[in-house]
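Morning run. Coffee first, then this:
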Amino acid sequence: AKSYSERFAADCTATNILPPLGSSTMADAPITQQPGSAPPPIEGAEALKFAQGATPDQLMSVMDYVNEVKIKQKAFILDAASGGGGCMPSSYSIKDVNGTNLLYALEFSHPCTRCCCGNLRKMRLDVLPAAAVEDASGDAKFDMKAIMGEAKKCCSFGGAAADQPVAFTLERSMEGSPCPCCRCPGACLSFCHDRYHVKKGAAPPRGEEDTRPVEASVKQASCGGCLTPTWEIFDNAGALVYKETGEGGLCKSCCPGFCLCACTDNKFSFKKDGEEVGHVTRV
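And here it is:
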């Protein structure tokens, strides 16, 4: 797998922007202008300036130059102290294979829902450029300043700030759920099927109606896929595009896909028309 910078160099070479290796012109004059297909800046003041004036499509284009990413959830001291009770809104760092920060995801959810509903809670992830976050490393902090910051966030809704550019949001839908703030465990019944919606740009302020169109959606298959945990991914027209499946079987999953404990699978494959096109590995 190639890093962001390696894919950038490969893209430039493919479009004849970089001269051949060893060419005398390589040292004669630096590149002062990149083509329209060049990736956006991802670090430093230049990246922040770009992000603040970019469209959601431009912010998401950073993913066009990587074929593998690593997602790391940030650990919080207060969550650890409470036994993982979900006191803090979750946050995730999205990196390339060399550890370069690309995007950062911040959870928006009600503090009471986090404590009462756990991992079945209603929530939304605001995904923004790493340059728009003070610390996008995802590394845990163990000093007093970090602890005080966590205590403040524990009682907040979280999510992106009003002045932070958001590329897209991933929101757990409560559609069909008998409870407005939690999904029921398992997937034997249709109203228990977990589902998510992807929408471009920032969500409206809390309390206002969200009129953004759904760009893509993800939901559990009927009965959770039975013996193989399965998710279905749809486009903005509602057509099935991909299926995400676990390893399957009682020996692999420990229990069928319609049970809550099916999350023990460590590898999920993305398939289109029955052919694997990618996968997610949990480590």
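The two ends are 17 Å apart (CA to CA). Good start to the day.
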